[in-house]
Automatic annotation (TrEMBL):
NCBIfam families recorded: P_ylase
Subunit: Homodimer; enzymatically active. Interacts with PPP1R3B; recruits the phosphatase PP1 which dephosphorylates and inactivates PYGL/glycogen phosphorylase.
Gene Ontology MF, one: glycogen phosphorylase activity
Native source organism of the sequence: Haliaeetus albicilla
Protein name listed in UniProt: Alpha-1,4 glucan phosphorylase
Length: 764
């Protein structure tokens, strides 16, 4: 979620009033804002997308809730020591959190372990261990519409009789100390992005958030009088019409068997009725196609932790496979491929298959990704129910990612096209009229320059590094992962360095290359990539021949509040994943909206950015998905590129020989070995096209006016990438609710006065 203070002031229309009031108290608002900790309760794009969605849902007046876990420790703080990533605990609640309100009155029990007792009538889950879920509510204000929604995060608490009701009379002290075991569930966020780690505590977390949330939803449904004559509701027929649950990846997939358990075991609904309601309630969003990221929980673990849920999953699977067998008799291979249970070695539950079978809608997060989902990853399921599969291209909230982080640009745009674009970003197309307006071109360039100077001062103050604000800011910020190819950027840096040294007198467009992002603590290769970047930076930044032509910065502890500073200052946005691997990306959209140009592959939402702005207004290079598939068919041979491309050979030889790490010459042998022998993401195959494309970037940067005109064309084409547009599509195509742009009356205005206004049409 990042920080809350400035976002709240903007959405409530109070920023100027607060700035002035704080100033009159002799304080500085920006200093105050810097004191707030980021809420870092997710890993990367997935968590930030949810935060943008909450902002858009409130702004569109939807009655929506965001549910999650109130981790005591969020994503780790990253320190760079001697070029290596070191993790520190993110004790973000140390000074309290003024935005949250604990709601002990809504505390709910969550059960684990135990066994299942079968009677003739039903199944009973007994002898369980209970953990209490304590909700904390954080307000989510819509933009200037007097709507405030709720984000409800669950914290784990041990019941007061924990370990004491057992025949454990003796050790009272130990029993109280053991409360930590239960409360560890919400202690810490697992720091993996795009990687599945099948740990018991993680499965506990996933079930914890799901079980608490579903009880909460059902309590609210039963209490609502809407369309019901009974004092307490017991009929669930209207449930899917009143409730829509969106599964953000497979992490909350246990919600499907849990809702079935509630309906069948507790509410005594017949299976078929329960299953129909369940399917119509859930929809599933897929966020990655990387096989190592797909959740596949061992059956043994689920059987121990959630025995009743395993039985329900088996039953779902049996009926699912019976249905497929009836359509495709004797096709045992299809049954194997489509089963929720993977045999062979340890039996596992494929959570994506569970989500697809248990949902009425499945979507990818960019056109190209949704196609890959349909034609490759889940093609058997798409063949069965093509109407179930949709696309919902991701978006970003223009409140945080323009108004808040780039007020200079936001104001400049408002002067030209009015302020309405903040709620309807498609209006940015009106900027096309000003692409040849010399004054506007100069003003856009001036705002960018001011942002660069401001960021340079921040870097100098915080990290004691001096950078040249007139150089091109070439920025690559995102989680460190092989598929995102920070290594390819690194090879380009080494190539630029070698060119400067080969011919120091030749004209070279000065660059500051900024790379930032966290590596999962257990991801060895990602940590080596960070070390390599820092090692190269040390050599490049201290070579007198290079001087100020090339600087390399590794941005420590990349997070939302740092993104808000670096993105508005960026000239060139690096979006260089291997085609077919980045589901969408959202950083790409943030840079586009903030006046950076994109160098990127035809991957994720880059494809649609090129479609909106015109491919000639992005620096697109490298293999397309078809080329990658073809190269896989032929067999990728890294050696061949190394032999054919002298500059690539030189760069690799330098890394391999210890040119950058003379004290430990074979420090990067693992990295080099990977690049030659098992590089799934084909860095060498795109290297030549990337370097040539970077030459075109430098050439255009020399012509400031032509560069800025391209920037304006990009901003004018960024409207599609508002999360408001994304949420309208979810609302209409999946949830079947209508967004409203009505501004509800403020609480201080009498209701009848507000109704008179509405009649006169002023509130519409």
């Amino acid at each position: 979620m990042g920080r809350t203070l400035q976002n709240t002031m903007i959405n409530l229309g109070l920023q100027n009033a607060c700035d002035e009031a704080i100033y009159q108290l002799g304080l500085d608002m920006e200093e105050l804002e810097e004191i707030e900790e980021d809420a870092g309760l997710g890993n990367g794009g997935l968590g930030r997308l949810a935060a943008c969605f909450l902002d858009s849902m409130a702004t569109l007046g939807l009655a929506a809730y965001g549910y999650g876990i109130r981790y005591e420790y969020g994503i780790f703080n990253q320190k760079i020591r001697d070029g290596w990533q070191v993790e520190e605990a993110d004790d973000w609640l140390r000074h309290g959190n003024p935005w949250e309100k604990a709601r002990p009155e809504y505390m709910l029990p969550v059960h684990f372990y135990g066994r299942v007792e079968h009677t003739a009538a039903s199944a009973k889950w007994v002898d369980t261990q209970v953990v209490l879920a304590l909700p904390y509510d954080t307000p989510v204000p819509g933009y200037m519409n007097n709507t405030v929604n709720t984000m409800r995060l669950w914290s784990a608490r041990a019941p007061n009789d924990f370990n004491l009701r057992d025949f454990n009379v003796g050790d009272y002290i130990q029993a109280v100390l053991d409360r930590n075991l239960a409360e560890n569930i919400s202690r810490v966020l697992y720091p993996n992005d795009n990687f599945f780690e099948g740990k018991e505590l993680r499965l506990k977390q996933e079930y914890f958030v799901v079980a608490a949330t579903l009880q909460d939803i059902i309590r609210r449904f039963k209490a609502s009088k809407f369309g019901s004559t009974e004092s307490v509701r017991t009929v669930f027929d209207s449930f899917p019409d009143q409730v829509a649950i969106q599964l953000n990846d497979t992490h909350p997939a246990m919600a499907i068997p849990e809702l079935m358990r509630i309906f069948v075991d507790i509410e005594k609904l017949p299976w078929n009725k329960a299953w129909d309601i369940t399917k119509r309630t859930f929809a599933y969003t897929n966020h990655t196609v990387l096989p190592e990221a797909l959740e596949r929980w061992p059956v043994d673990l689920v059987e121990k932790l959630l025995p009743r849920h395993l039985q329900i999953i088996y039953e779902i699977n049996q009926r699912h496979l019976d249905h497929i067998a009836s359509l495709f008799p004797n096709d045992v291979d299809r049954l194997r491929r489509m089963s929720l249970i993977e045999e062979g070695g340890t039996k596992r539950i494929n959570m994506a298959h569970l989500c697809i079978v248990g949902s009425h809608a499945v979507n990818g997060v960019a056109k190209i990704h949704s196609e890959i989902v349909k034609t490759q990853v889940f093609k058997d399921f798409a063949a069965l129910e093509p109407e179930k599969f949709q696309n919902k291209t991701n978006g970003i909230t223009p409140r945080r990612w323009l108004l808040l982080c780039n007020p200079g640009l936001a104001e400049l745009i408002a002067e030209k096209i009015g302020e309405d674009y903040v709620r309807d970003l498609s209006q940015l197309t009106k900027l096309h009229e000003f692409v040849d307006d010399d004054l506007f071109i100069r003003e856009v360039a001036k705002v960018k320059q001011e942002n660069k100077v401001k960021f340079a001062l921040y870097l100098e103050k915080e990290y004691k590094v001096k950078i040249n604000p007139s150089s091109m800011f070439d920025v690559h910020v995102k989680r460190i992962h092989e598929y995102k190819r920070q290594l390819m950027n690194c090879l380009h840096i080494v190539t630029m360095y070698n060119r400067i040294r080969r011919d120091p007198a030749k004209l070279f467009v000065p660059r500051t290359v900024i790379i930032g992002g966290k590596a999962a603590p257990g991801y060895h290769m990602a940590k080596m990539i960070i070390k390599l970047i820092n090692t190269v930076a040390q050599v490049v930044n201290n070579d007198p021949v290079v001087g100020s032509k090339l600087k390399v910065i590794f941005l420590e502890n990349y997070r939302v509040s740092l993104a808000e500073k670096v993105i508005p200052a960026t000239d060139l946005s690096e979006q260089i994943s291997t085609a077919g691997t980045e589901a969408s990306g959202t950083g790409n959209m943030k840079f586009m909206l903030n006046g950076a140009l994109t160098i990127g592959t035809m991957d994720g939402a880059n494809v649609e950015m090129a479609e909106e702005a015109g491919e000639e207004n992005l620096f697109i290079f490298g293999m397309r998905v078809e080329d990658v598939t073809e190269l896989d068919r032929e067999g990728y041979n890294a050696q061949e590129y190394y032999n054919r491309l002298p500059e690539l050979k030189q760069a690799i030889d330098q890394i391999k020989s210890g040119f950058f790490s003379p004290n430990e010459p074979d420090l990067f042998k693992d990295v080099v070995n990977m690049l030659f022998h098992h590089d799934r993401f084909k860095v060498f195959a795109d290297y030549e096209a990337y370097v040539k494309c970077q030459e075109k970037v430098s050439e255009l940067y020399l012509n400031s006016k032509a560069w800025t005109k391209m920037v304006i064309r990009n901003i004018a084409a960024a409207g599609k990438f508002s999360s408001d547009r994304t949420i309208k599509e979810y609302a209409r195509d999946i949830w079947h609710v209508e967004p409203s742009d009505l501004k509800i009356p403020p609480p201080n205005e009498p209701r009848d006065a507000a109704e008179d206004k509405t009649l006169n049409g002023t509130a519409a």
